[in-house]
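In this notation, each integer encodes one residue's backbone shape. One such record reads:

___
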Amino acid sequence: MANPPRRTDNALIEGMMLLSFLESEAHRRQRMFPDETALSNLKDNERVVLYPSYAYPAPDQSGWILQVHGSVFEAVPENLPRKIMIRVLARLMGATQEQLDTNVFKQRILGFTVYQHGGKEIAVKIGDKIYQLRGKTKKNGQFRGTVLIPNEDVDTIAMTVGATRHVRYAIHSKFEVATPLEGLVKLIDRDGISVISDIDDTVKHTQVSTRKDMLANTFLHEFATVPGMVDLYQKWQQQGASFHYVTSSPWQLFEPLSELFRDQGLPDGSFHMKSVRFRDPTVLQLFIARRWGKRKAIKQLLRTFPDRKFVMVGDSGEKDPETYGVMARKYPDQVVKIFIRDLGGKKSTDHRYAKAFRRVPEEKWQRFTCASQLQEYDLPAPTQISSAEANGDGN
């Protein structure tokens, strides 16, 4: 006669059943049905910026879960808080009035001087169907939503460019409010290789370690890419990588950054930036790196794509070594390589790296100063990784 199940076995079974129920319930809630009456309650003087995002397969393989992300804002006339902010910023940068009158400065400061609208209802059009997003825009004007699109609809509306499939969507409103008029959502498969990359001092020259230079490079000078990084990322893109750009820069800089990416040919990818609600003329808080914010965004990507492998690229100017080290220890089967651009100075010590990457295999991380040092690195194919893991060779 078989022994009755032990109490611990029953608890395990109950836990697994609960987990399965929660996953199916979350999936059910994400299913959003088309609504022909849905409409964004936006005004003619309000604008929407749409951020590039990603979609992933639904747990039951019935369709794709699309991430929708953007913000609602309105340009405001000259006012006293704006003048005070610009005066403080000019003093911190050592900027002349001539520099403040340039188109570069006016473009960069624009995102920090608009009025961000909370409480707005957002409807989006995907293909020929309209969906009302749950919830309203937050106080910082941002909205996020998920829409599950059945496979048959995705097959109809998805566009393919090279090896990349993506879906476009638009804000559904009485007025043309979106800039750009369409949002881009990249379809990312369960398996494959993804690159998580910082932006400042990793692909864009910023000098975050020096406050005055950082602010000047952000607001006064034309953006410039780090030599060799565009070619490297283009090579990895050709090898099948998807890209996710995770940075401590605020969302207010998205549009000039996206122009840099487009002009220089950096691969498309999802953007994950810092949310800031500007409420006073103190600009310093905008550029204080919040380590938890980057960790949260990276952890979400790793959890969303548990079967994908990740290469992480950052620099020594902020907390990238420490953040990536934590991720490598927590998700050792997913993080296959870490590259840190060493900027020199007091932060670039052997002790710091040893502490940041403790218990991380030495072959899994590498310091570099020039992109040319990474040109020989080819992204591992998923079959290569699977074979290595099966043979017990690790990553």
Q: What stands out?
A: The longest strand covers residues 63-74. The chain has two domains: 29-75+116-187, 193-374.
